[in-house]
């Protein structure tokens, strides 16, 4: 009991409130001598952005500015009566060079001049240009390393075809995964984070996190997709030790990356603020956006006028990783016209944040030096990006991007948003981004017909938009029919490999039990019911893996009276094991080189696009058998006798719910159910006798007893701690 209490205390003590992460601390306070109420702690957000937490300054006398030295130490200039000639004045939190006003314990963000980084400077100070005196300052530590995204490498491949390209922590709440692959067959799989030294089940607030769409349900498959995941508000990657794909129901890790200690990445909220253009330092819009018009059933525009500017929210049902959405003023004052249109293109930059880019379309063509659908800042347009205050959110399949611009910018490539007079003609589009993160031709159904064709932007507030929701209607999925294999006295060989469980229409439909996502295939068939005769010796050629250090590919076959099996997980006292032999030696279980029935890449793509298999036979046609080269199958000889019950189960010794029923008779029935095959025949069109040639080796390989013994000792130790 004391040991049990100790474990509980350890778990609870690890669940702590999240300490706000502001970046990497440069200096706390403003030095030994400060004037005018100067306070605050200064952090690096990234190499060209800093923020000051709890900044106070009385604003009197006027003339205070932020002055950064490029050569000298602060101690060398603090007593001087003149300005350090090597120092640079940087823009204030409002993005201009006016004197600082009064601040009272506020958080502010500062951007360095274009092309400059923090290591170009030696000190940070507040200096009065009216009286040429320093109010406070400090040195930037030598060798200071600013926060930046951290590449963790690919996910470790452990199970369910999990692979990826680079996994990168972009900021303390955002992680990017390139080329993610996962077969989608885990029954209770989630993106999962933890604070333990190894990947294991966690206590809230750690554990499962929403997927790239903000959804909290079981994740589906991925076929080489780039995704970006954002942590909930109460978590930060700076407090975590690993990120994984994890099956909660079966406590299985499908693949992970470990997070280094003292993670030095940008803080999420501050990066969002710093990514805006000059003059934009807030992370929330100044006024609510209440007007709304639907542009199509997938796109809506909301807006509100604020003095001489206009704030927008563009919301669309798009693929966040590949698509853009665009809205703006038509190139014609009398009709819908893309040519000469002034639009803003919004998208989610993979691994970063929301983007909103000012575009001017000179022709209906790809952007080139001679024009096309190009950003205002392109060579062909020669303008400026006048979009500011950019925010983004992706939830339940809907991307929302907020942005702001002046009604009249003075840029020749920008049209005026009018708040009086008749409505203005608008344009919009949804389409794919090209490799340069610029617009490609919009999708055929997008941009041509708009529910709203003109908008009067100065009208009284009216919301005409229905709720944007992703359609989730799914066609009925048929259950696979059960199969039966009969072992006669002349046909006594069964070949067992691992394969896809077939989701809800496969293992779950056949057994009523949730599987791990894989299952036994017998003679190429998903969990057929076996029919055996007492007194006949049957050969079970086992290909479930031999590496006990890799649980995802280690599935010893055994016979049991437990409907779910997995003896090693429970050490069930009521369970009976029916032994067989390997090379004439009695064994409770047997292992052999690993073989797995996998879906082809084309089939994975098809299922991700909504393909539904009508039968197991159709499902099987899209599979291939993938075997490692560790060893042969193992021949596990099982002879049911008079002590064998009429119903037992073939299962996995280390995991639950991989196999199904074995019916045992004194005489095999003469009438067989439908979908019946004899033991040695090839029901699936696979010649079971030829598969051994896939393995390299000269002899059958029985279970590695020493490795399994260590595994058993480890589990017994865990059970002992719990009991005592």
From TrEMBL:
Region: Disordered, residue numbers: 671-694
Boundaries of every DM13 domain copy: 23-141, 153-260
Pfam family, one: DOMON
Matches recorded under SMART domains: DM13 (SM00686), DoH (SM00664)
Keywords assigned by UniProt, alphabetized: Repeat, Signal
Keyword Signal carried by entry: yes
Organism: Bugula neritina (Brown bryozoan)
Biased composition regions of type Low complexity, renumbered to the chain: 672-685
Signal peptide: 1-17
Domain DOMON, first and last residues per copy: 297-431
CDD domains: DOMON_DOH
Name of protein: Skeletor
